[in-house]
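Quick one, tokens below. Sequence please?
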């Protein structure tokens, strides 16, 4: 990492004469890595669920036209399947917002505090 040196406790700090935060050091910090891992552990399964639902809907619309044209209580299955897609999108969004407020936000604040301390320590 050009422009960085190893500081106290194995943390990276900016070499003298360079302004601004050391983004590479922040990215490599354990707090930031923990945040990335937590987000990824939520987003990968959520993305898979959404893509399976969307692909399933598209496949049904394309290849199961008879099934999608049937009525259930006077409502076409295709309409119900589209409604499920919308509800799935809302549910994933709601779940992400809850997870972001309860888990990701505190982790972001902790990573930001560590980065701010490191930047302030460099200015001294």
């Amino acid at each position: 990492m050009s422009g960085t040196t190893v500081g106290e406790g194995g943390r990276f700090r900016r070499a003298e004469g360079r302004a601004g935060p050391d983004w590479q050091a922040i990215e490599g910090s354990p707090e930031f890595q923990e945040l990335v891992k937590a987000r990824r552990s939520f987003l990968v399964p959520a993305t898979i669920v959404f893509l399976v639902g969307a692909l399933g809907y598209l496949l049904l619309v394309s290849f199961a036209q008879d099934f999608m044209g049937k009525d259930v209580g006077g409502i076409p299955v295709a309409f119900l399947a589209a409604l499920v897609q919308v509800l799935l999108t809302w549910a994933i969004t709601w779940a992400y917002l809850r997870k972001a407020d309860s888990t990701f936000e505190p982790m972001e604040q902790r990573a930001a505090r560590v980065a701010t301390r490191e930047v302030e320590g460099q200015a001294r």
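The radius of gyration is 24 Å. DSSP finds four helices and four strands in the chain.
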